[in-house]
Amino acid sequence: MTALDTNVLVRIITNDDRAQANRAATFLREQERVYIAKTVLLELEWVLRSAYKIEPNAIISALRNILAVIDVEIEDEAAVRQALEWCEKGMDFADSLHLASAGPDRKFATFDNALRRKIRRLAISELADL
After folding, report:
1. Taking the complete model, does pTM exceed 0.85, yes or no?
2. Cβ neighbours for 24, distance < 8 A, ≥ 6 positions apart
3. Is the model more confident about 29 or about 39?
4. Are 59 and 115 found together in one domain?
């Protein structure tokens, strides 16, 4: 199994470098199975949002499409899926992934008041007192 770097996924999604996008697509077709770390997905979301100015709904759709590929193994896929659900409810992907990765049995500590309000509004985690 081969692990993918963020830039391979960026090429396929954006097709900003046609030659690399074609190489990436060919490479993926030739693989029996590939592995994507959740940190790659975290970076992918950031790159698509920050560098490419892609709308959040389109990014969520792209991430969901990656999860739908049969020959892809995603690290901590359940947490990634949960994070995407919370994103669809207005949370930031990074914050959502941090929370989902922490699991339901842990309190979450943050100084980010906007995040604290979203966590309370969505009732998705118990907050630690800071």
Report:
1. yes
2. 8, 9, 11, 12
3. 39
4. no
